[in-house]
Write a structure and sequence with these properties.
Rossmann fold, alpha/beta, 4 helices, seven-stranded mixed sheet, 139 residues, globular, 28% strand, single chain
């Protein structure tokens, strides 16, 4: 699946497609440069899943934010500041992978800890400042 979005309203349309496809045990790798919209996507996803207008901060400094949704616990990881993949164990990545849905920014930082059968969302900024979002392994 591939979309081009101009604004957050169009981003919500993608969230409405992706959200019903998520289930416990899913790991979603979010690829893209700084400022491309990874956290904005997760923010929209959390608000859609919880049906609440809650604060969804970037986990850049805390590395993890968790959200209760009606069907699962959503784990939002940001590994930008991770120095070694093993540090992910300290914040409970194993439990997250097993017991909830994990959204991971900067998944390359955890190397082989990223499950082979993960889903991915890739974000890219186009010259007109719109975003391309490509989804892989969602069914």
């Amino acid at each position: 699946m591939r979309w081009v979005v101009q604004n957050e309203t169009e981003l919500l349309d993608i969230v409405k497609v992706i959200a019903p496809l998520l289930k416990v045990g899913d790991v979603v790798a979010l690829y893209g440069t700084l400022g491309v919209g990874k956290t904005t996507f997760v923010r929209a996803l959390v608000k859609y899943l919880t049906q609440q207008d809650i604060d969804v901060p970037s986990p850049t400094f805390t590395l993890l934010q968790m959200y209760d949704t009606p069907n699962f616990e959503l784990y939002h990881f940001d590994f930008y500041r991770l120095k070694h993949p093993e540090e992910a164990y300290e914040i409970g990545i194993e439990d997250a992978f097993e017991n909830g849905v994990s959204m991971i920014e900067w998944p390359d930082k955890i190397g082989a800890l990223l499950p082979r059968k993960h889903k991915s969302l890739s974000f890219e900024i186009l010259p007109d400042n719109s975003r391309v979002i490509e989804a892989e392994n969602f069914k």
